[in-house]
Fold:
Amino acid sequence: MFQSRLDAILMSSPCHTSALLLVFMALAVSGAEQSEERNCDVVGDESSESQMERALLKKLEPLSHMRFNVTVEKGKTENYVYQFRVCREVNSTSHDYGGLVQTDRQNGKTTVIGRINETQVFNGSDWIMLIYKGGDSYGTHCSGEKRRAVIMISCKRGVTASSFSIISEEREKEQECFYLFEMDSSVACPAENSHLSVGSILLITFASLIAVYIIGGFLYQRLVVGAKGMEQFPHFAFWQDLGNLVADGCDFVCRSKPRNAPAAYRGVGDDQLGEESEERDDHLLPM
Structure:
């Protein structure tokens, strides 16, 4: 039914056909824009963005699909919910670039604290600082300047993201007021260095060479030479004599006396005995 009516409309007039095509194209473009979420845009021209900033934004991408909320209650006058997303809009349907939004739970009023199209990012050894500028203007505070959100992301290994909380709101100054938040994430951690020492690396290399020698020699002796039994072991005769070689080497290195020194004890030879007197036992004979 719908297809027949559509064909009838398309065949009725070229003008109608062109108008319908324009409508369909507009709907397709608007749908594509809605499906594609906006990302962080660093403050300044695109040509002025540093490689470090781009690398840090790429490092934060694993957090972009997550949403973070924290509720703050101060007596009966202040009851706020803060919603935060990393390089994404909190409410993509509003198209306000709000990356961190404050909602008053008493009256439902929404205030944009910082926008993702005015982003700054830098880091230290184990933290990343993400700043959203260009929020809604203050009223009577901070000379009416625009709000700013500062999010400190600290290193915590094994945790994608946790402990999102607000630390303070600095609004008693004339300028440079801000909201300070913090959270933990492993994306802020530096790359772990290898724990293998030089000795471990040498030991692994040595063990690998020995394994290659034994396996390769065994295959060569068996498949090429045709050896059987223990003779398949590479250089079997050498390893049989290894004990004797080690003993000889130890004797040569470790013994303290000269190798040609005469023995400390010598037996008594016949040449060292004097001639016995033939009459020494004559007195024992009977008379």
Q: What stands out?
A: Residues 198 and 204 are 10 Å apart (CA to CA). Helices lie at 2-12, 14-35, 51-59, 198-225, 236-240, 242-254. The chain has six helices and eight strands. The first strand starts at residue 67 and ends at 74.
